[in-house]
Amino acid sequence: MGRPQTIDEYIEGFAGQGREMLGQVRAMAREAVPEASEAIKWGHPAWVHPSGTILFMVSGHAKHANVVFTPSTREAFDADLADFATGKGSVKLPYGQPVPGDLLRQMIAFRMREHENDGVLWT
Q1: FRET label pair with 48: which of 17, 42, 104, 120, CA 20 to 30 Å apart?
Q2: Are 111 and 76 in contact (CB under 8 A)?
Q3: What pLDDT band is residue 123 in, cutting at 50, 70 and 90?
Q4: Is the pTM for the entire model greater than 0.85?
C-alpha cells in the first residue's frame, strides 16, 4: 500500500497499542475541535481549522505516537509536560499508557485561541 489517503487508512496501518492510541487521540480531537476538518498532511493525520491553517498533527511510530503543535503551544504547557518527552512542538505518548486527554484538550483549546486571536499559523 502507498501513502495513506485518509486518516482511517493511516490508523489501519498500525496494529495493537499503536492503532488503539491513534484511535483514542482521533476520537478526543474530534470531540475537542468538531469544527476542524481531518486531512493527511505530509503523510500524517492533521486537524485543520476552517481558515485552512493546521491546528495540530499526529504521527504513529514503533513504540509511541507524537502529537505535534506549534512550538508556542507546546511551550505554554512545559510544566504540565514534565513527565513526557517533548520536542520543538511535539509531545511523545508512549503506547500502553493512557492518553492524557484532559491535557491534550487544553493544548488544543490553547492552539485554537492562538490561531483565532493572535493569528499564529502553522510553523
Answers
A1: 17
A2: no
A3: low
A4: yes
